[in-house]
Structures are given as structure tokens and as C-alpha cells.
Write a structure and sequence with these properties.
The model has no long low-confidence stretch (mean pLDDT 96). Helix 8 (167-185) packs parallel to helix 10 (209-232). This protein has helices at residues 27-35, 50-59, 63-66, 91-99, 108-114, 127-131, 158-161, 167-185, 198-201, 209-232, 258-264, 296-305, 317-321, 402-409, and strands at 7-13, 37-39, 42-43, 72-76, 81-85, 119-123, 140-142, 147-149, 153-155, 189-194, 239-244, 250-256, 276-281, 284-289, 310-315, 330-336, 339-342, 348-354, 367-368, 381-384, 391-393, 397-398. The protein is built from 14 helices and 22 strands. The chain has 2 domains: 7-68 and 103-248 and 377-409, Alkaline Phosphatase, subunit A; 251-368, Gyrase A, domain 2, CATH 3.30.1360. The chain is an alpha/beta fold. The structure holds zinc ion.
């Protein structure tokens, strides 16, 4: 319990594009952005997937340093490289088996534990996205697929076990988060990660009535948390309130069978071969090589550079520039080519995706993300209280700036992250 000291409450509205925040659907976020600090040039990480983003928000570092390279990743657990979904509950254990650890840098939960402080995370997204906020169990993580507490000790939590993705589950989680977590248990850090509008954005066209209802629902959940926070701390001196999203979305134009193209070009031995393994990440892909220093790497990169669906091929220093490592089996990344045109509901941005046989959600005409497109790289961020003066900040900011901002408010060291604590005054 830490009711009197500094605290931070974070609400993430998964996939909410900054340009879809408007008076009709998100009256609360519009009002809050007027009276609080808002960040007009806020960006996601690469790949702009929920699990890599969750790890970047938790660590203040890009994937190059925290080590989770997307929603899917190829791991060698002794039988060669195999692409695995980081969303599956067993993925952190597979990552430990293949690499000896999960994330390579400490999370907020771990840093708080060093100081004897509690963190509590409630998430209605995939197990992977929930668990990568705190994969080694330094604080409490509540999720439908299983909850745990400090020491990675399993916790029976019927309220989380009953949650389903979508607005009803988000609303139930918000009720519990406000009453039990923020008000009663009052940890130093409380994070709530809504499934909306991501869940509906993957299952309907962006800007459709269903998608807009999901956006409005997320806005109402964020309002409920904010009102709870400010009832407990009316002046905002103690509790820093942070709300934002992890990435935006583009509309899917078509699906690319990258494995098939590599096999047809003579660059991959066959379907399921382990010489070069594609990890699809929505509108991006990462490619892993059994022999990462072989000439197959530049040959695959040259092939991709000539494909019209490819936006950019990243190798070597190009990987470093977007925050990916240069010394792993992953040696090539691609972000797919965005077309700046409107969908039937007036929402801009189309992009192909790399086909993922294990992904039943991605549908042509619906939303997706993962790459460097302008709309998927347009999350929002608003911060209120904790000495933040109202006003719009125009300088570029990133998901990796959130953790150092949280740590500064809690009077903890924050100079070893990739990000920087955000300015309290407008610039
Ligand atoms: Zn997400």
C-alpha cells in the first residue's frame, strides 16, 4: 500500500489511432487533451505489434535492447528455427529455453520491486501482450489465461478468468480496476490494457459503426479510470495519469505469401524449411537465417527490394535505425508499402500484410498493423497530473519515453532506458 506517496495509473486503448480521436466518438479524450499534456508527434516502435509495444512500454527500450522482436519470432529450441507466436501463454518459457532469458532489460515491475513497491497490471489482450509487461513475475499480472503475483506465483483470479476480448470484457475489467486496484490496493503503478478498439478493428472496417462504437467504449473506460483517480487525488499532485495507445492501424489491401515467393525464387528450400524462416508481423515481417553470415542474407534482401508490395527492406544499419538488433539470427526486416487512400468510411491508409497461417483474425478490408506506415505509427498519448502543464508538445516522442516518465514521477533512476522522461512544460 502506498496511498500517500507518488503513484502512476496508465490506461492503454489498444490500436487507437490519434487521428480517430474526435468529439463524436471520444468526448473524454478530446476534453482531457485540452486540459492536459498531449503529444502530437507520438510514435510506436518497430514492429508496431502489441507484444513488442508492451515490452517497450514496460522497459523504455526498443526491441533491439529488450529482445522481443514482434508478435511472432523464430526461436531455436534445439531443432532449428521455428516461427512461434509470442501471444501464446507458453511463449515466455520457450524464449527462456531458446535464449536463457525473457526480456534482456528490466521492466517497470522489476524496477519497482527493487524499491519494495508493487505494480499491478490488468490486461484484456493476448496472453503474450499481458505477460511481456512483466514476464518474470515481479508484480501482479491479471489475465484470462492465468494470473500471477510476485515470485511468479500463480494467483487464482476468477474475475480475470471470466474476461473476453471486446467491450463487455473491457468494461468489466475497468470496474474491477477502479474499485479494487486503484482505490483499495493502491499500488505505486497500476496499468490497464483495454482490448478495444484493437479487437473490433481487426474484425471490421476502420471507421465503420462497429469500430466507432468500440472507440467510444474505450473512451468511456478511460474516463471512468480518470474520474476515479481524480476523486482520490483532486489536485493531481500524487497520482500521474497516463493514457495512450500502442500503435494505430492501416486497412488490409491484400495478403502476401512471402514463404511461397521465397521458395519460388529458389531462396528457401521448401515450405517449413529452417534455412530462412519468415516471422509474419501483420504489415511487416522479420526474416531469420540458420546461417546469418551467409550470402543468402543479401540475396534475400535484394529479392525483396524488387517486390512492389515492399515499402522498405531493412538490413544491417537499417535494422539498428528502426530499433532492431543486428547480431541475432534475424537479419532482414520488411515494412510493407502503404497506399494513402480512403477506405469506404473515409479512413486513410491501405497496406498489404504478410500471410500468417496461424492468424485467423486478419481479413482484407479490416485493420492491421506491424509496420512503419504513417497511420499504424500514430498512437496517441495524454498525460495529466504530476506537474505536467497543459498544452500540446510537438517534438517527436515514442512508446519508450513512457517508462522513464513513470520512473521520474516515482523518484526512481531512469537514465538507462532508450527513451527520455517527457517534458513537463510545452515546447
Ligand atoms: Zn496493440
Amino acid at each position: 500500500m502506498n496511498a500517500a506517496g507518488p503513484r502512476v495509473v496508465v490506461v492503454i486503448c489498444d490500436s487507437l489511432r490519434a487521428d480517430l480521436i474526435g468529439q463524436d466518438d471520444t468526448p473524454f479524450l478530446v476534453e482531457l487533451s485540452r486540459r492536459a499534456a498531449s503529444f502530437a508527434a507520438h510514435r510506436s516502435v518497430f514492429p508496431s505489434t502489441t507484444r513488442a509495444s508492451a515490452a517497450s512500454i514496460a522497459t523504455g527500450c526498443h526491441p533491439a535492447r529488450h529482445g522481443l522482436l514482434g508478435n511472432t519470432m523464430a526461436l531455436d529450441e534445439g531443432e532449428g528455427l521455428i516461427c512461434r507466436s509470442a501471444g501464446h501463454p507458453d511463449f515466455p518459457d520457450r524464449m527462456r529455453r531458446a535464449t536463457g532469458r525473457t526480456l534482456h532489460v528490466p521492466t517497470l515491475a522489476e524496477r519497482l520491486r527493487w524499491h519494495g513497491e508493487d505494480s499491478i497490471s490488468c490486461a484484456n489482450v493476448s496472453p503474450g501482450a499481458a505477460y511481456f509487461q512483466d514476464p518474470d513475475g515481479h508484480g501482479f499480472v491479471y489475465h484470462a489465461a492465468g494470473s500471477y503475483g510476485p515470485g511468479h506465483r500463480p494467483v487464482e483470479d476468477p474475475a480475470s478468468a471470466a474476461l473476453k476480448k471486446g467491450l463487455a470484457g473491457d468494461r468489466a475489467m475497468t470496474e474491477r480496476f477502479c474499485a479494487e486496484i486503484i482505490e483499495e490496493r493502491a499500488p505505486s503503478l497500476a496499468i490497464m490494457w483495454l482490448s478495444e478498439p484493437d479487437y473490433t478493428g481487426h474484425h471490421s472496417p476502420l471507421g465503420s459503426p462497429e469500430h466507432r462504437r468500440a472507440i467510444a467504449g474505450a473512451d468511456a473506460c478511460a474516463r471512468q479510470v480518470f474520474e476515479t483517480v481524480r476523486r482520490l487525488d483532486p489536485n493531481g499532485d500524487d497520482i500521474l495519469f497516463v493514457t495512450g495507445s500502442d500503435h494505430g492501424m492501416e486497412t488490409i489491401s491484400r495478403a502476401i505469401d512471402l514463404d511461397g515467393l521465397l521458395v519460388a525464387a529458389g531462396l528457401k528450400e521448401g515450405a517449413g524449411s529452417r534455412d530462412v524462416v519468415v516471422a509474419p508481423n501483420g504489415t511487416a515481417a522479420t526474416l531469420y537465417f540458420a546461417a546469418p553470415d551467409s550470402d543468402l542474407v543479401p540475396r534475400v534482401a535484394r529479392f525483396l527490394a524488387h517486390e512492389n508490395w515492399v515499402g522498405e527492406v531493412l538490413v544491417g544499419d537499417g535494422l539498428a535505425r528502426v530499433g532492431l538488433p543486428t547480431d541475432t539470427a534475424m537479419r532482414v526486416a520488411v515494412t510493407l508499402a502503404v497506399e494513402d487512400r480512403e477506405n469506404p468510411y473515409g479512413v486513410r491508409g491501405y497496406c498489404p500484410i504478410v500471410q500468417d497461417p496461424s492468424d485467423s483474425e486478419s481479413k482484407i478490408g479490416f485493420g492491421q498493423h506491424g509496420g512503419l506506415g504513417p497511420n499504424e505509427q500514430r498512437p496517441f498519448l495524454i498525460i495529466e497530473g504530476g506537474g505536467f502543464a497543459p498544452g500540446k508538445r510537438h517534438q517527436p516522442t515514442s512508446l519508450v519515453d513512457i517508462a522513464p516518465t513513470v520512473l521520474r514521477h516515482l523518484h526512481m533512476d531512469h537514465d538507462d532506458t532508450d527513451g527520455s522522461a517527457l517534458p513537463r512544460e510545452p515546447n
